[in-house]
Design a protein that fits this description.
The complex is a heterodimer of chains A (263) and B (275). Chain A is an alpha/beta fold and 263 residues long. Chain A is 35% helix and 22% strand. Chain B contains eleven helices and no strands. Classes of the chains: A alpha/beta (263), B mainly alpha (275). The structure holds adenosine-5'-diphosphate (ADP) and magnesium ion. Chain A: It comes from Tistlia consotensis USBA 355.
């Protein structure tokens, strides 16, 4: 895939405004979050456990229904959409989870092709058949993540790092403009983690995708991010270019946590 | 009496060991539990009127029966083939229709996917009722309702199996990995596509395995159902016993043995393949 060549800045792909999420009977997990991601931009979200990172991503992909605020993806407000319109809008954003979330009994190729289901409504795909026409493209996405040689393998036989790359290929098969990744390297060894981060950065820089990635490791964030967003108690504590970020604000993110543990 | 094994320990260590659950003798509670269990077993001997001496005097009677049952009357084999087929088909019918009914019922009865609470309670109620009433009792009811023959037996197995399968199917759905479901949902796939491409591949092997095991159990049940007039080889067995045709009885028992063993092997082989 030749890159769109779009650099950071210019038009925004994702703009989140005043996003609120209150779980039934609980406190506010998100308390007015604003952030944006442009094409070709890799934005990393840091925050301690329970700060609302997963809730943020799950609201944006509308696995959760936010209590308030706006989610603008390429100008369209996702927070108000339902049904077919929501499904169509979702195709623009691919989501990557901590454990890959592949269908374990299916082949790698079948898993990747299933990412394209949104573009292929109809009886055949509803009955569980896969659109054969998507195979060449799917092989291309597997090549892009370096796993074309594993196309025939059952997903259950992959290592954690391989599964995560297949999950990225599946997200690419939906031809998204934006990737959301929730701790995609949390269960990987350091080497595999670096590989995934390099891949996400390449997808941003070469293919012009916007990437919003939740991480647990500040040192990875500093090295790979264009911008780092610090989340605390469901609020944005800071939002700065990675190069300008000093250590102090990052330490402050985890401070409350450390104090709580010391007590 | 002192705690002998603890004598080498100081007071502090002894206290710690005791607090950590070390015991050098059974506690009073353990002793009482053991006594209660012993009493439980003894009362069963009284209630079932166990008479070991009858087993010994019964040996000659058994030997006599065995003599009259050998050799098996192979000339009756052709007559036994149709009832044998009936028995197998009762089990297949009961299993297949139970699976067809249990699958949608399990969706309603699984807490994580049920469309609404009233459906959940309704489905759980149907499952509890059909499960709690034994298949033999269902067979008696259906014999009364539709008359003698294999059909009431097949119905009885189907109804009882709906409950047995429905509960296990619902458990599979409740334990399902939601990861792939969420992943496909976020690609923009429709609900039906998510069901056929993420839910089904995840649960189908378990459902097939459970169904095959159920068939194996249903075959054994369908033999017994004949005793209450619900067709199959069990009915033949009952008739032969009542007519004191012990050589026919032994032939029928051989057929039963072959059927049960074959069903068990086939079911186990297929289960291994879908695992
Ligand atoms: N489904 C839910 N129901 C109720 N509370 C939830 C749910 N999911 C998350 N929360 C709560 O929302 C807060 C943020 O959680 P989460 O977004 O998972 O944090 P993070 O991903 O940053 O660790 C936590 O206090 C958590 O307990
Ligand atoms: Mg999380």
């Amino acid at each position: 895939m030749a890159g769109a060549g779009a650099g950071p800045g210019g038009e925004t792909l994702l703009r989140v405004r005043g996003l609120r999420m209150r779980f039934a009977g609980g406190t506010a997990a998100l308390d007015g979050v604003d952030l944006s991601v442009g094409p070709g931009e890799l934005v990393i979200v840091l925050g301690s456990n329970g700060s609302g990172k997963s809730t943020l991503l799950r609201c944006i992909s509308r696995l959760l229904h936010p209590t308030g605020g706006e989610i603008l993806v390429a100008g369209q407000n996702l927070s108000r959409l339902e049904g077919a319109a929501l499904r169509r809008a979702r195709q623009a954003l691919g989501m990557i989870f901590q454990h890959g979330n592949l269908v374990r009994r299916r082949s790698v190729l079948a898993n990747v092709v299933s990412g394209s289901l949104g573009r292929h409504p109809g009886i055949r795909t509803s009955l569980g058949l896969l659109p054969a026409g998507e195979v060449p493209a799917a092989l291309g996405y597997l090549r892009e993540v370096g796993l074309e040689h594993l196309a025939q393998r059952r997903a259950s036989t992959l290592s954690g790092g391989q599964a995560q790359r297949v999950a990225i290929a599946r997200a690419l098969a939906q031809r998204p403009r934006l990737l959301l990744a929730d701790e995609p390297v949390a269960s990987l060894d350091p080497e595999a983690a670096e590989e995934i981060m390099r891949l996400l950065r390449r997808l941003a820089k070469e293919d012009g995708l916007g990437v919003l990635c939740v991480l647990h490791q500040p040192e990875l964030a500093v090295r790979y991010a264009d911008r780092i967003v610090g989340l605390q108690h469901g609020r944005v504590l800071f939002d700065q270019p990675a190069g300008e970020l000093a250590e102090a604000p990052i330490d402050r993110l985890y401070e409350a946590k450390t104090q709580a543990q010391a007590a | 009496m002192s705690d002998e094994t603890f004598t080498t320990l100081g007071t502090r260590e002894r206290g710690l060991a005791a607090a950590a659950g070390f015991r050098s003798r059974p506690s009073l509670l353990q002793f009482l539990l053991l006594f209660a269990f012993g009493a439980l077993v003894v009362q069963t001997l009284i209630v079932v009127e166990a008479r070991p001496q009858d087993l010994i005097t019964g040996v000659s009677g058994m030997a006599d029966l065995l003599a009259r049952a050998t050799p098996p009357d192979w000339s009756r084999l052709p007559d036994a083939l149709w009832p044998a087929l009936e028995t197998v088909d009762i089990a297949i019918f009961g299993t297949v229709f139970a699976v067809l009914l249990a699958a949608p019922l399990a969706i309603l009865a699984a807490a994580n996917v049920t469309p609404a609470r009233p459906f959940y309670y309704l489905a759980r109620g149907i499952i509890a009722l059909t499960r709690a009433v034994p298949d033999l009792v269902w067979a008696l009811l259906f014999v009364t309702a539709v008359g003698l023959g294999p059909f009431p037996g097949a119905l009885a197995l189907a109804v009882h199996s709906v409950g047995m399968l429905g509960r296990l199917f619902a458990e599979v759905v409740e334990d399902m990995d939601m990861g792939p479901v969420e992943a496909l949902t976020t690609t923009g796939a429709s609900r039906l596509q998510v069901f056929t491409h993420a839910v089904l591949p995840g649960v189908l092997p378990s459902l097939l395995g459970i169904s095959l095991y159920r068939f194996d159990e249903n075959l054994r049940s369908s033999l017994v159902l004949g005793f209450v007039g619900a067709g199959g080889i069990g009915f033949q067995l009952l008739t032969a016993m009542n007519l004191f045709q012990y050589r026919t009885v032994s032939l029928l028992l051989i057929i039963v043995f072959v059927l049960v063993m074959s069903a068990e092997r086939i079911s186990a082989l297929l289960r291994a393949r879908v695992a």
